[in-house]
Amino acid sequence: MLRNSLIVIMAVAVSYGFTALAGYLVYATSAGSREANLSIVVRFAINPMIGILIGALAGRLSKDHPVSVAALGLAPWAMMLLASPQKPTSPLGWAIWLFPVVICLPLSAAAALCISRYTHQNSKRLGSLASPLHSS
Fold it and tell me: Is the pTM of this model over 0.85?
């Protein structure tokens, strides 16, 4: 329980850190780019990558419940992305505005589950290889 709580706190901190790093990189490479193009890159490329990285982190470190740990760790980040003073008026606007929750959280959960399963399969395989060495 304590381990999962610490992983959630770490995932929240790392997600904000990745957001700041991505913002700096976009700013540093944005010479001559239009703001609309940068917005599309951030929303549809960088935000899903941050979700996948946080899911991978949670899946690698969590021994049990990696999906819920990833979702809880990414929830404050997703709420930050949704906190804007202008709410959309059209259905397409709502779909684009809800993109972080609808796409990034499931991507994060899937990454956490895949990494967790891969990690547990490798640890079982390595454990079965190491057990004959310890028995002698």
Answer: no
